[in-house]
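User: Hello, beginner here. Can you help me understand these amino acid letters and fold codes? It all follows right here:
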Amino acid sequence: MADKAYIEDRTIEMLKTVFDPEIPVNVYDLGMIYKIDVTDAAEPEGDKVFDINIDMTFTAPNCPAADFILEDINQKLTSIPEVKNANVEVVFEPEWTKDMMSEEAKLDLGFL
């Protein structure tokens, strides 16, 4: 049976398959994901299911690919069988900087 840690790991795996069409690095390694919160979904009976709540940002407030990225995240997270809802809140505090990227992302983009 899945638990919150398993769902968080699967969430990260899925987020690593979501890319900004203009940047060849996934949103997780770009540091655009600020918070992942896995909670029990209200299910009266049956298998245990979870809700995923994410706080994320974009590399720029007027990101032209924002809708595409949000839809891709939602589709991929709700494809996890144990996930009932995926809620993504876009925040701009703190402001995204290149320092938020993983070492791998910095290397891929030539910043190291």
